[in-house]
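Handoff note, outgoing to incoming analyst
You'll be picking up this chain. Sequence as last confirmed:
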Amino acid sequence: MDSKHGDQTGGVNVSVHLTEMAEKHPWRRAVVMPAGRDRANRVLYVHYTFRQLDRAADRIAHGLSDVGIGRGTRTIVMVGPSLDFFALTFAMFKVGAVPVMVDPGMGVGRMLSCLQESRPEGFVGIPKAHVLRSLRPRYFRSVNTWITVGRRWFWGGYTLTEFQHRPWKPYPAAPTARNETAAILFTTGSTGPAKGVVYTHGMFDAQVRAIGDRFGIEPGEIDLPTFPLFALFAPALGMTAVIPDMDPTRPARVDPAKIVEAVENHGVTNMFASPALLHRVGADGKQRKIKLASVRRVISAGAPTLPANVAQFAAMLTGDAQIHSGYGATEAMPVSSIGSREILSETGKMSEQGRGTCVGTPLSGMEVRIIEISDDPIPEWSEALCLPDGKIGEIAVKGAVVSRGYFERPRDDALSKIRDKGSSWHRMGDVGWRDEKGRIWFCGRKGHRVQTETGPLFTIPCEAIFNRHPDVLRSALVGVGRPGSQTPVICIEPEKKLASKRRAALRAELLDLARGASVTARIETVLFHPAFPVDIRHNSKIFREKLAVWAEKKIRRMPKKNA
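Most recent structure output, in case you need it:
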C-alpha cells in the first residue's frame, strides 16, 4: 500500500474536477467563508471563484513541487476550514502528494501517535500546529519539509504566503493512476485504535460520482458542509461550499441561528448534518417555527439518526426536500442511503419496535452482503459465508468507493478484508440484516454486541425501545462480564437532570418498556449517566467501551438492586 506510483493503468487525478469547473464556470463562487461581522452584526464574507481557487491551487502546487513535496510525499495537513485549506488540498492532489489528515479532537497523544505512524515527510500547519510539533519533535523525525499557514515564528521552513504571491501559471496535474495513493485519512478510533485509511485517486473519483448520482446534485448548487472533509466534495461536484460559522469538532454545540443565517444568506440547497447537529438545529427550528425554503436535501451520516429527529428537522423543509440518512465509514463511503419520507412513513415505526435502523438500498455499483458473525480473519470470499434475508449478521461491502486497506497495518487488513478474485470485500465491523426489498438494516457495531448465555443482544434494536420514552435523550446497551456470560445493562442519558424520586419512577417505566418487547425482555439493569462520552467527529457515536467500564464499576458498588 505504500507504493508511490501504484498501478499505472487507468489514470485519474481528482484535482481535474476543479480545473474542469474553472474552465466551464470561472466566475461562479467555489468557496465562501465568514470573515467577521460589521457594526450592524451582519456577516462579512470572503470567497474564491472556481477560477481563483484553481489558480491558487496552481500557485501552491508549483511552490510545493519546488520545495520537494511531490508525487507520493506523505504530508501532514493541520489547517482548519478556510480558503487556504481548499487551495492547499487541491494543490496537493495536483502534484500527487499524499495529505495525511487526523481529527485533532481525538486528543493530543492519540493524534501524535497517528501522525508518527504515517511516517510523514512533509508538514503543513497553522502556527499552533508548529508549536505542538516543536514541543514534541520525536513524533516528527521523518519530516524534512515544513510549511506554515499564517505567521512563521521561530521554527523556520517555508510559508504558504510565499507560494501564493508567485505569478500564476498552470500546473499540469500529475498523471496519477487510479490505484495510486491520494490521501491517508485516519478513523476516529471510536471502537478501537485510530487507523490510517488509504484513499486512492480512483476512490475519490468514484465517491464524487456516487454522491452526485445518488442525490441528484447539479453544478451551481450551494452546499453547507458542516464537516470539513465533506466540504472538499463540493467544488469537485460544481457546488459552492459555504463554510459555516461553527466549531467543526463540536457539532452538538453549534449555534442553530448561525446555521439558519448561512442558509438564508446564500440560498443553500444542499447541507450535510451529523445527527447531533440535526437534533440541535431541528429543535431550534421547531421552537422558532423556521422554514428553510431553499434547501433541496440534507445528508446526514456519522451515526444512526432517530426517526423523531428526522421528523423534527424535516418539518423545517418545504416542497420535495428530504433528509437522506446515509450509511458508510471512512473505509467505505457512501454505501447506501434512505430518504426521510420512507423513514417517516414506514421504516421509522419498525425501528421504534426494535428492528434496527434502516439505512436504505445500496448505491449503484455497491455490493452488500450479510455474512455469519466472526471475530476472526476470513482469508477468502465464498458465497457460503452469506446469510439469508432477515437474519442478523456482519455487513460486508465491495465497490469502487471501498478502500483497499490501511496504511501499514497488515493485522487490521487481515481482520477487515476478504480477498475475492483480485479485489476484496470490506467487513464494516457492523451487524445488520437485509429485508425482502433489498434494504439494509443497521443493528450496531459488531464489537458492541452483548454476548449473554442465551445469545447475543444488539445495541440499536434494544436502545430503540428505551429511546421511545420522552424523558430519555439517548440510551446505550453495554455488557458487564465475560463474553458468553455477560449481563446486559442499559445506560440512560436523561433529557434533563432528574430528582431521585423521578429517577426511581423512570427506572420502573423503562423496565416495563423492556418487558414489553422481545428484544429487551432480558434486560433488568438500568443505570443513569449524566452525559455519554461521544466521538469528536460527529458528536453522535457513543463510546460504549467507556460506558461498559463505568457500568461495571457502578454495579460493583451497588446493592443487589438497581441504584
